[in-house]
Amino acid sequence: MAARAQRIVFAGANLFDGTGTPAAEADVVVVDGLIAEVGRDLDGDESVDLAGKGLLPGLIDCHVHVVVSPGPRHELLQTPFSYRFFRAVANLQTTLATGITTARDAAGADLGLKRAVADGLVQGPRLQIAIRMLSQTGGHGDEWQACGFAPGLAFPTYPGMPDGVIDGAIEARRAVRTLVRAGADWIKVATTGGFSSPVSDPTRPHLRPDELGELQTEAEAAGRHVMAHAQGLAGVKNAVAAGYRSVEHGVWLDDEVIARMAEQGTWLVPTLLVPVWSLENGRPQPKFDLQATIEAHGDSFRRAVDAGVRIALGTDCGIVPHGENLRELELMVERGLSPARALAAATSSAAELLGLSDSIGTIESGKRADLVVVDGDPLDVRGLRDRIEAVYQDGRLVSARSAS
Ligand SMILES: [Zn+2]
Questions:
Q1: Ligand 1 centre distance from Cα of residue 108 (Å)
Q2: Rounded distance, CA 271 to CA 211, Å?
Q3: 150: domain CATH number?
Q4: 212-253 confidence digits (pLDDT tens)
Q5: Which of 178, 192, 294, 353 has the most CB atoms in a 10 Å sphere around its CB?
Q6: How many whole angstroms from 65 Cα to the centroid of ligand 1?
């Protein structure tokens, strides 16, 4: 006779379950890595006493770069090629310890890394991957330097990591097919320039409607969605018009495009943290005034929230240090989102964006037992990073703060 599976009861936590129900004291029973029951006075074979603690669903970051680490690009000239993968293992562990149990990698992670996590070779958030960001010649993904070389420092091309510079609809079509062949869950494209690339201008729209439309058509045929790196207004409008599922960054938005995003259900993944962290840490930004960018970005975000645009958490960690992810929650709250909605952006809403609502994003019976134990009120997002006490993924303890 098969042994009955262990019932582990997480008892007495102040539970934010992600369903929209107000936080309240509850017990959660986990069996075989799944949530079996949520309620009061539940019993189990084993008990984890969470009196005085908060309990959240595993958090979801919809925009990270786990293979990228912050630092001057020129340092990469002296970094051995394979070192990035070993550092990625550390970045994944740091992200997991922050309470992020699922992440969408917005360029850099390849199928090997995703599979290594899925197979349990390395610990980390379960991943959806874009593999490579597509962009036009001279665009945000083109690492061409004024000396005439394009060294591929941040995002080198190698087996499993196809080149990302495309011009013309036929190249757009081939690029989607090549990325899908390499295992991409998402197609990522830069519809504007960006801050960190050598020559591109974040306010300029990149790629023309025929190229952008081809990406959407081909992604759709392969059962994939498109996510757009889009900062300036014209490029955001093109991304929304092309029918893309998410707009990443969305620094400069007008009310017209906000209304269309709300109507179409286009997601905004704002990554508010990037310019804030850059300013705080004295990272020079030759292209734009960081303070003005932060203000415009905050204003766009606030108006999008007011208009009912769907928001999911994304942080661009990799550009900012891994482990800083939860500061994004504080920034969202400072810019007008309620703490409960900010947490929803990191749980149930993020799961919806990723198409994973059936299995993660809330604490309900039948869902995977991804659980985050926090010290104190789960709805107080200030300093949340330092209050993460334990992280469970599929019911297994994957990170615990050591008592000091
Ligand atoms: Zn990014």
A1: 10
A2: 26
A3: 3.20.20.140
A4: 999 999 999 999 999 999 999 999 999 999 999 999 999 999
A5: 192
A6: 7
